[in-house]
Specification:
The protein is an alpha+beta fold. The chain folds into two domains: about 100 residues, no CATH class; about 40 residues. It is built from two helices and four strands.
Length: about 140
Amino acid sequence: MGEDLPDFYFRVKENGALAFRVNTENRQRRIELDHIATINVNNGNVRATGDRDLTGDEQAAIDDWLASRREVLAGRELDDILRAVDHLNLTAHWVQSKATDAQLDAMTDPLLLAMHDLRSVLVRKKADRIGRERSDDA
C-alpha cells in the first residue's frame, strides 16, 4: 500500500490548502500525514509549519499543486458563468410559462437590478476592450 501513495497530500480549504508529507516509514507501518505548510491560493503565499524550512522537493510539489489548483479553479469559474447563462435561459422560460403573479412580485425587482448591474459592467468592459484594440491598431 505504501508504494501506491503519493509523497504529498493537500487538504483543500477555503482559500488554499494544508500541505502534508505522506509518511509510511514507521514501525507500525501506519500512514502519517506530517503537516509541512499552509498555502494561500489567492496570493500564492506558502508558510512552512513552525520552524521548519521546506526542502526543494517539498517546495516543488507545492508549486506544482498550486499551479494545478489555480487551473482547476479558473476552469470552474468559467463553467459557473456558463451555467449562469443557462440558468438565465431557464428563468426566462419559467417566467414566461409557469411563474405566478406572487412569484413574479417576489423576484422581478431583485433580478432586474442584478441584470442591470451585470449589463452595465459587461458593456463597460466591452467598450474598454474595443478601445484598447483600436489604440493597438493605430
